[in-house]
Design a protein that fits this description.
12 strands, alpha/beta, 10 helices, Metallo-beta-lactamase, Chain A, globular, 7-stranded mixed beta sheet, binds zinc ion
Length: about 300
Amino acid sequence: MKTILCLAGVLALLFVCRPLSAFQLGEADFTKAETKVIPVRGNITLIQIHVPQDVFHIAVLSGPEGYLLVDHPEAAGNPLVQKALDDMGKRPVKFLLNTHWHYDHVGGNEIYGPDAIIVAQENVRKRLMTKQTPAWSPTPIGPYPERAWPRITFRDSLTIHFDGEDIEMDHYANGHTDGDSVVYFAKANVVDVGDIFDSKGGLAGGVDMEGIARSLSAILERINDQTIIITGHSRFSNRGELAMFVPLLEQTIAHVRQESSAGKSEKEILDEGLPEAWKPWFAPGAVPVDRDFMHQIYATVTHTSNLNQ
Ligand SMILES: [Zn+2]
Ligand SMILES: [Zn+2]
């Protein structure tokens, strides 16, 4: 009941889709932030930090052994996160998991490392260790200081046993980035998908849209109707929404591939917009013109996508 009330409370929050990064490192105004601490299920809590430009999510597993966090906004947001953690019971942060390398997910690494063990897919470590020049950032990002580098990395999958919970991280494919992890809390039946999916009405994108479709299909197979889905920047979601989204994405990929092989240019395909089949996903709103999302699908099917993002 508690969870249902909490979920109802955030249903009103619907965030529109964004490109890979709608605004830049250092632009989030944490002086105007509002923090919400939302019980999810079992000993999982979600810290939501709302800034004027966006919302950031930190999933927290708490128990006698300490805290395990999934993601953390940039370091400037840490006082807010730490205050929320202190209010929850002043436990030490023992593990920090990164769903991917973007600055709005790894900002806690330099704060809590090396005391907390940072865990991520192996490409996250590679990217944090070296200067990154993604197309969406006007300035290079990193390299991050050594204390921010993940200490434990994996290629496909890894499980952490902590606070009585089994926490599994899976890298199914390149998707939003080349180092995405999906984090399952097996006992609580909660999954944190990071930025590879936005709840109903949203369109998460990335470097490989076929990879996102593959990853989301794998999640769909794995979860059930009771699973609570935590996303990087949108409200809570569930299996029903994911089951609606996956075929739409798959159909759109197939459609763009067909159009492209028939000789249509990228501009012509983008000008047509999202197929009408998306109507239920955006209802009661209209299907938006989303050139970024269509461009990412086009880049995927034509193998012109730049993984360096
Ligand atoms: Zn991201
Ligand atoms: Zn993000």
